[in-house]
Amino acid sequence: MGGPAHRRTRDGGGTLCRTDAVPDGGCSEVRLGTGEPSLLLYRNAHDVRGYVNSCPHFSLPLNARPDRFLLLSAQRIMCAWHCAVFRLDDGVCTEGPATGMSLQPVAVRIVGEHVVWDGE
């Protein structure tokens, strides 16, 4: 069923998960709600990046199984469907059918022990 659901605040943002729910150097999936795309969270030490979990090539989730992503060396992720490879530091596709396209970034940050979403 993917990662944890988040707690939404009035402005649309809110707490997504505990920081330790996103492994250092790894990714986690967070569901926003029924019918909404999930988010892909990537953590590198004390930095976290967020993206809409949707490949720009074909609008499918990057993962084929809930909360399971194909991570490659050098901070890259591969779409499970058509093998597009994206850099996790900026979301840009460097190989495959989406080359030159980017994942849609989501404003997230670490506050205390939690990853929070700033809303739209």
Provide a brief overview of the structure:
The protein is mainly β. It is built from no helices and 12 strands.
How would you portray this structure in words?
The structure is a single chain. With 120 residues, this protein is mainly β. It has a single domain (7-117), classed as Rieske Iron-sulfur Protein (3-layer Sandwich). The protein has strands at residues 7-8, 14-18, 27-30, 39-44, 47-52, 70-72, 76-78, 85-87, 93-95, 105-106, 108-111, 114-117. The strands form 3 sheets. A 4-stranded antiparallel β-sheet has the order 1-2-12-11, with no helix packed on it. A hairpin with a 2-residue loop joins β4 (39-44) and β5 (47-52). The protein is globular, with a radius of gyration of 13 Å. The protein starts with 6 loop residues before the first strand and ends with a strand. The model is unreliable at 1-11 (pLDDT under 50).
Helix coverage percent = under 10%
- By CATH reckoning, the class would read Mainly Beta
What Rg is obtained from the alpha carbons, in whole angstroms? 13 Å
> Which class do the helix and strand fractions yield?
mainly beta
Largest sheet: 4 strands, antiparallel
What is the H-and-E element order? EEEEEEEEEEEE
Mean pLDDT: 87
Q: Into how many domains do the coordinates divide?
A: 1
CATH topology: Rieske Iron-sulfur Protein
**Gross geometry:** globular
Order of strands across the biggest sheet? 1-2-12-11
Instruction: Provide the CATH superfamily.
Output: Rieske [2Fe-2S] iron-sulphur domain
- The beta-strand count equals 12
Report how far the terminal alpha carbons are from each other. Answer: 24 Å
Number of helices: 0
Strand content: 35-45%
